Amino acid sequence: MGEKKRKENFKPEFVFEKKNYKFMLIGVAFIVLGFILMTGGGSDDPNVFNPEIYDWQRIRLAPAMVLLGFAIEVYAILLKPKSKEEN
User: Fold this and answer.
1) Distance CA 34, CA 56 (A)
2) Which of 22, 37, 43, 51 is the most exposed place for a label (fewest CB within 10 A)?
3) Residue-level pLDDT at 86
4) CA 4: distance to chain centroid?
5) Pairwise CA distance, residues 8 & 30, whole Å
């Protein structure tokens, strides 16, 4: 009888709240965008040098976007959930 009561009162909960998941998706979007910005600039012929590989977008912007995305991910994980008394 006691186990039946526990099963009735059991309510599964997620580890994170909706706000945490939103920030996680934003962080993943920043990371993906950063890696997309890093692509390109190569040459089809290995004997021809393409200076586009050293573009500011690939050297400065893309790594900054990836690092910002990881920072947002850390923030999303450490974001404090609402306490039960506030609900």
Assistant:
1) 13
2) 51
3) 54
4) 40
5) 42
